[in-house]
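cron nightly-structures :: item 1 of 1
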Amino acid sequence: KKKVKLALNLYPVYEALSDDLFLFTIIEMLFLTLVKGFSDSQIALILMIVEFAVLIFEYPSYKLIEKIGNSKSTVIGAVMPVIAIVLITLGKGVPSVVLGHIFYSSAINFQSMASASTKNNLLLYGERDLYTKLFSRGSMIYSGMSMVATLIIPILFSYNRYLPSLLCFITYALLVGLSFMMPDYSERVYSAETRANAKAGANAKAKER
């Protein structure tokens, strides 16, 4: 029960960090134009390709989520933005930028499973009506941190144009750490029950023989 409570307490932080906390999209647009020298037409083409690719991968993403479950999906949703930042910041040429933005835009489907995990954990914890309070807490954390981010991002960008991207990377690296600490414990409970029922059924059949 302590582990479930910890997962519930971490959810508002996960929710806040998984949003575009440090204005990653804006940062990368500035980065692409000022550092990598991309033109407006190139960026428009990149965004069009990304939107089309995300639309194509929408259904396969949900099928994968359905197959692997909420816990693993939450972790994948945290890892994808890290990969995206590395590809966009360190990659060379349009393909790496396109791939990075596809990872970043597709991550939201997986990150949303943290909400499903939390609702299931609340049922296990006996506090099913607490979700709105946790979500509101996450929104408050996001609002406070994004206000600070809005103030410091321009300063960091003027000092070194790689610093905002580095800050985004650190933030999402923390998100990865959090994702391992807030699994959907109902999956483990039902999995254990399934194994127990299967074992009981096998024993019963053995006795009949």
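cron nightly-structures :: done
The longest helix spans residues 40-68.
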